[in-house]
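Record type: monomer structure entry
Structure origin: computed from sequence
Chain ID: A
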Amino acid sequence: MVVTVRYFAVLRERRGVETEDIQVDADTTISQLYARLFPPTAAGTMPVLFAVNQCYVDRDHCLSAGDEVAFIPPLGGG
């Protein structure tokens, strides 16, 4: 099945795109997709908020065909 992923801030820079369609298995969780797209490094994994169809979800949320997924990194500012 296919989901659409939207990237923000540093994650958009890392992927080089703002949005892309990704093929996933039917029982994929949002945290599994995040780990696939942004594998942990020696420094660890960037903490992000997960959203599906414009609603925040927990890391164990299972994806469905056609979902719009967003990974939202911490934002700095002043």
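Annotation 1: The beta strands are 2-7, 19-23, 49-52, 55-57, 68-72.
Annotation 2: The two ends are 41 Å apart (CA to CA).
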